[in-house]
Every structure is written in C-alpha cells, then in structure tokens.
Amino acid sequence: CPSYFLSFPFQPLLFRPSTLNRDCLLPIYIISSLLGLVGNGLVVWVSSFRMRQTVNTVWFLSLALADLLYSLLLPFFAIKAAMGGLWAFGDFLCKVINSSLFLSMFASVFQLTLISVDRCLLVVRPIWAQRLRTPLLAWVAAGMAWLLAVAFSAPYFFYRELFCKSDHKGERCFCINNYGEKEVQVARQQTLIVMRFVVGFLAPVLIITACHMVVALRTRHRNRRPNRMTKVVASVVLSFFLCWLPYHVFNFLHGWDSRMAVKVGASLAFSLTCLACFLNPLLYTFLGRRFQEGLRGSGRARWLEAALAEDSLGSAKRSRCNRSLGSTTSSDLRMGQL
C-alpha cells in the first residue's frame, strides 16, 4: 500500500507546538479572511455593476475574484488551526479546498503578468495596443489565465487525501499529500515544488520585471512621470511577490530538509501569503486619483470607483494616443503597427 508523506504546504505539522496554530495562525486566518471578503467583495461589486466595462476593470475584476476565492477558503484553515491541525470536512473538501488555494495563487500571478504585459504594450506600441486593446480581448486573456491556473493546480487535487488514524485519543483525521509509493514520493514532491516555483514565481517575476523596466526606461527617456495606473500595478505586483517569496523559499527548503525549524518557518510563511488577499483593495484606494474627493461623495463606493476608473488611472496615455491617431496619416499608422 502507498506510504503517506506528510509535506507542507497546507498540512498539519504533527510535532510543532500546538500554540502556534491557536495563538499565531488562527488570528491571521480570521482577520485576513474578513478583510479579504469585504475588500475584494467590494471591488467585484463596483467593477461589475457600478462601472463602465473597460480593459482595466476586467483586469481588476479577475484579480479580485482570485483574492476573493483565497479569502473564502481561509475559514476552513482557521477551523483546522483551532482543532490543532485536524481536518473535519471529509476527503472531497480536503482535495477541493487545498487545490483551490493553489488555483488562487496561480490565477493571481498569471493575472499580474497579463497586467504588466498590457502596460508594457501601451508604452512600447501605443497605437497598436489601443486599436486591439478591448474588454472582449481582455476577458479572453483572463479566461486563458484561469484555465492555465486550473491545469497547474490539478496535481494538488489528485495528490491530496484524507488520512485517519485511531489511538487512545480516538480517531483523528488529517488532510495530507499522498505522493504514492515510497520509491517515487520524494521525487514527485520535489518536482511539484520546482514546478510551482518556476511557473508560479520565477518566470512571472522575470517577465514582470522586464515589463516594468521597459516602462520605466521609456518613461524616463520621454521625461515623463509614471502615471497612476503604473504606480498601482507596480505596488500590487510588489506586495504580491513580497508576501509569496518566503513561502516559496521555505517550500524549497522543506523539499530537501525536514528539520522542525523549516517546518515551522513554512507554516509561518504560508500565513504571510494571507496578507496578499486583502492588500490589493487598500492599494487601489490609496493610490487611486481623487481618493479624498471620492470619500466625501454621497454615492456608495465612490472612492473605489475613482480608484479603479480607466480615465482616472490611464487617461493621460490614452488621450496622447488618441491625439497621435488623429494627427497621423494612414501610411504612418501602417508603419506604427509593424
């Protein structure tokens, strides 16, 4: 029969101090979930029902849905932490809940990559980008990002299962990773760790960094200050990677080193990722133009509408592009699209 390999992430560390779950992780899960549900729920509502649909609102809506999913899953881990690592929701939810966390992670990082590429194209090829940059195409790109996220999170659904054992305390159940036979379990675990790091962190970091370097160089070359949208995107990207970097580092260490300090560090690093699910609405708010004016408005969520509006975050670039379109001959347009 297959041996069960207890491995982080999202699994009980059987030998860590019980107070870590109760005193440290439990409050983080509860607070992060509440803030994430309120903040991202408001972003979803405003971008879906209160605003004209634009490319930016599609990006923000898709990213908010990923963060909202993460926030919805955290109460399960709060209950798990309160129970000292025991799992009380059965085998199916053991698979679904844990794999959905990875779905949210991949969806978020893929969406951030799309947003960064979009900003880069607006700077490098403004005429070409404005002619092809439509909400429909943004929905297609966002949908493809979610499909890729489903594909990369699928292994965690199949390898996750419920493991129950009986002792003098009665039957206790844990939601664990089962990587199969002993001969292949370590190799499979390490393969997933490397895949998660490369696809979910390293490759997006390289692409996003390259995009923002291009934007910064073009902006400096033209002696222009970065617009509000560029600042919002850069802040969201930075907060996401700062929250997830310790997680990936400790997972790498845990894949090749099972010492207790690494296990406890991995658990604490996972709790840091919870911050990413509610930081984005705060960044939209405080970096969006007319925040103070929106707060004093009479309409509900006026401040968030001002923060997410296409014209308030990216109108300067669009208006410059439109003026360029109006003053450029048809032959120049064809050259600009090459």
What does this 3D model show about the protein?
The termini are far apart. This protein has helices at 18-50, 55-82, 90-124, 126-132, 135-159, 182-221, 228-256, 260-273, 276-287, 291-295, 302-308, 310-327, 330-336; strands spanning 160-167, 170-177. It is elongated and about 70 Å long. It has one domain: Rhopdopsin 7-helix transmembrane proteins, CATH 1.20.1070.10. The model is unreliable at 1-17, 290-300 and 311-338 (pLDDT under 50). 77% of the residues lie in helices and 5% in strands. Helix 1 runs parallel beside helix 8, helix 7 runs antiparallel to helix 9 (276-287) and helix 9 (276-287) crosses helix 11 (302-308). Strand 1 and strand 2 form a beta hairpin. It has a two-stranded antiparallel ribbon.
Identify the CATH class. Answer: Mainly Alpha
Reading side by side through the largest sheet, how are the strands ordered?
A: 1-2
DSSP helix fraction: over 70%
By CATH, the topology is: Rhopdopsin 7-helix transmembrane proteins
Low-confidence stretches: 1-17, 290-300, 311-338
What is the overall silhouette?
Answer: elongated
Between the first and last Cα atoms, what is the distance in angstroms? 60 Å
Radius of gyration: 22 Å
The tally of domains stands at 1
Q: Which class of secondary structure composition applies to the elements? A: mainly alpha
Overall average pLDDT: 78
Number of strands: 2
Order of helices and strands: HHHHHEEHHHHHHHH
Residue fraction in strands: under 5%
Transmembrane segments: 26-46, 58-79, 99-124, 136-159, 193-217, 229-247, 267-287
Keywords: Disulfide bond, G-protein coupled receptor, Membrane, Receptor, Transducer, Transmembrane, Transmembrane helix
Region (Disordered): 319-338
Membrane topology: Multi-pass membrane protein
